[in-house]
Amino acid sequence: MRRLGWASVGSILLGLALVPGFGQDWFSTGINLGAPKIRLAVSPFQPVTPDPALANLTTEFNQVLWNDLDESGIVELVSKSDYPVKLPRDPEEVSFKAWSDPPAAATMLAFGKAELLNGNFVPTARLDDVHNTANPSVLAKRYVARPDEASARAAAHRFANEIVQALGGGLPGIALSRLAFVSNRTGRSEIWIMDFDGYGQRAITNFGSLSLTPRWSPDDTRIAYTSYASGNPDIYIFSLETFRRIPFPMFRGLNTTPAWAPDGKRMAFCSSMSGDPEIYVSDVNGGNLQRLTFSPGVDISPVWNPKTGNDIAFVSDRSGSPQIYIMSSVGTNLRRLITAGGDASSPSWSPNGLFIAFSWRVTDTGTYDIYVIEIASGRTIQLTHDAGRNEHPYWSPDGRHLVFESNRSGPKQVWTMLADGSNPRQLTTQGENWNPSWSN
Description:
It is globular, with a radius of gyration of 23 Å. Strands 1, 2, 3, 4, 5 and 6 form a six-stranded mixed beta sheet that branches. Strands 9-8-7-30 form a four-stranded antiparallel beta sheet, with no helix packed on it. The two termini are 32 Å apart. It has four helices and 30 strands. The longest helix is centred in the first third of the chain and has 20 residues. The chain folds into two domains: 294 residues, Neuraminidase (6 Propeller); 130 residues, 3-Layer(aba) Sandwich (Rossmann fold), CATH 3.40.50.10070. Helix 2 runs parallel beside helix 4. Helix content is 11%, strand content 36%.
């Protein structure tokens, strides 16, 4: 533990830095955020009967659908104050001119109705191109859900995902994804999960000891993390299907920062079993163990290239301060990624394999902020500015968003933002919350 020094096992290291940013055009284009946003009107769904239960579920559906689309990064929502007086429930009630002309000036219209049928909450959802009066229908879906809040929210998430996929070049939406994170709100640092929008926060560990660095398996059925439950930092795996721990060896020394390979069959992690914290790879059951790094100091926080599975980025202080390096998945072709100095850590590889988000601090007195680097060119952009300490970025599965921790509002909390740094949003408020990661 002494050798970790700058890393601090308790928080599992990771510093940050600052450097001159480049223009954003190359970056926005690279993650599909540069295209003009589509003007989308989201007409509130109408309940077909005055049943109070149906009205409450429809209100919840409408609010979640609006929020999901507002967070998507690909649409510009038309202000409800610009909507026509008559709101449609069925296709024949749509006045295309009223929606396409100012003040609405919409390109697309989402609308529908909600019913209680056979004890189920059933929204009928449509997406129309209001400029294509001959064949306006883009989507027509019916969702059958239980008559409760969680199910109404899930139906709205599904429709939002369908809209994002239809309007966003075929890339699926993230409204049904989840976040794992660490929270001390119960007095101990445990692993928690929540929906991508912060709903349904709940603990999945209850060790009464320090738990850190959660990472989702590629199929989202398991979470690997670091736990001090046995008194030593070891890697644990939790099944979200059986709600039980899956065996993983307790190697000698410190074992931490697990990272799943894209194929879900291998695990990279840091271990001091050889006396020095190094990067190892094994099968997910701990077999076929292979040491990848051989350098004095701390090598920690590995992350795989999710696109190819052929490369691993990690953090090392072999140059004197924590820096990000990349090597092949067998430990060859080592190179330093960030060469402008300072402290660089917390690498997170974008889903398309083109970028790495990371934490960077240029000087000892500098601000901890989040940056993105284009791996091929080395071009770098700063995403957070003048907003406290910002660390541990992690990409969303669509590559359009990042989750991170920040103390800009006081104690450390989990935030999300679009991957160009815009639209920051706080998700947690109770206690301190950090080390977030996004499901796949």
